[in-house]
Amino acid sequence: MKFFINVGSSIINFLEETGRFFIFTLKTLKSIISKWYLKNIFQQMISIGYLSLPVVALTSFFTGGALAIQIYYGGNQFNSEVIVSSIVALGITRELGPVLGGIVVAGRVSAAIAAEIGTMKVTEQIDALRTLSTDPYEYLVFPRVVAGIVVLPILVGFADVIGIMGGWFVGVQSLDFNGSVYLQNTEIFLESNDIISGLIKASVFGFIITMMGCYHGFFSQGGAQGVGRSTMNAVVSSSILILGSNYIMTNLLFAS
Amino acid sequence: MPHKDKKMIEINNLNKKFQKNEVLKNLSIKIEKGESAVIIGRSGTGKSVLLKCLLGLLKPDNGKIKIGDKYIYGKNYQYIGNKEVKIGMLFQGGALFDSLNIWKNISFSALQNKVSEKECKKIAIETLEKVGLNPNVADLYPSELSGGMQKRVSLGRAIFSEPDIIFFDEPTTGLDPITADVINKLILEKVNDLGATALTITHDMSSARTIASKVYMLHEGNIIWGDSVDEMEKTKNEYILQFVNGQSKGPIKIQNN
Q1: pTM of the complete model
Q2: B93 CB near a chain A CB, below 8 Å?
Q3: For A35, which residue in chain B has the nearest alpha carbon?
Q4: Chain B CB within 8 Å of residue A256 CB
Q5: ipTM over 0.90
Q6: What H or E segment, with its residue span, contains residue A233?
Q7: Separation between Cα atoms, residue A37 and residue A28, nearest integer Å
Q8: Which among A232, A215, A209 has a CA at the least distance from the CA of A48?
Q9: Within an 8 Å CB–CB cutoff, is residue B112 touching chain A?
């Protein structure tokens, strides 16, 4: 009997959470036709994009380099200059750039958003916003979401270039490739669709990261411990959703 | 100065419960224009819930709330407010925006309405002087101020738009007795200057004695007593006597709060 009670209450909790998130998303999207706080959007673009650039660049550079080594030593070394450059370019632009970039930004940004909004919630600053006739969805949530959607593709664009350069650097320095031939091969094999698909994914990840951060922060409860829990949930849920949605989008974009 | 035609608060049969816990039970109260009402009561009796219902931060389950001459909840208890009545609020912890400096906190509402930053800063500094703070603090951030100074800034933000009604949630909590007295007198002075209607919730009796023109006692989700401060001192009501004198024995039972 206890088993059924536990299963039942888990299902109810899940449905309640899903419904709450759905309403939260609708209220956020409603802000499209309301007041746009452009200054807040710009500030968030700096915070989410510009300040994430070093960590995304480092991740991407080392990933590109490691990928080049793996392909070189893992595969047939005959004609490796063509294979390594093309697989590094495709791997970075289609998958690793957006996914790793997304996960790194999720760890940095989603946590920061959840902690900031969560602290505002438990110290009644969100209530104070409402009493000052300011909708917290328009003032806090929407600018972060817009900034995430716009800035993540730009970040991933940089990550793509830096990742490919990471592969090129390792190829030239360690694998004795000819640098200009490597870049020529990259250019030949890389199609605009490869880049665009990665940027579309990045935009979706930007939405997921900022929504998860805002949502978990917005419903923080119970002081410092509650804010800590929200921060953790924001990072875990955005990372899982990035991986899950990446699989779905890869199917939609490439399976056909 | 804002117009003050029949501005008052009227609550009829207000109910609010959280799961099985009935916090407000058929609560009714009427606060006249210009009155400084203080609601006293033990922690957990529903004082903050009442205030949140008045501000539209919590949806009531039942009952009617009228602010000025308009009901503030529409169909399905959707908060619609009354845009003709300006409301100010001082939160228990100040609730200052810690990402904004002091003058931006004070003039927040004007800044959102596209008033120029120069004008906002000028009025914010005037407001700082009204609440007894040095204009030098205008560019500081809330974390750089003491608790008493933060309360003053919060009071400044509450009176910035010259509201018709001001709500005070435990205005002296966490302050030493001297600073608490300064804040109480400041509240009284500013409410009188504005000619506003004030509603304060507190369990600090010296605060109630200083601010109130009328005191109400909230017990088990309902108003059980309401009269002037003089009457409060003379009353034989057992609930008031127990609360005012801070006695553990009496009709108010000590539960798990």
Answers
A1: 0.88
A2: yes
A3: B112
A4: no
A5: no
A6: helix A223-254
A7: 13
A8: A209
A9: yes
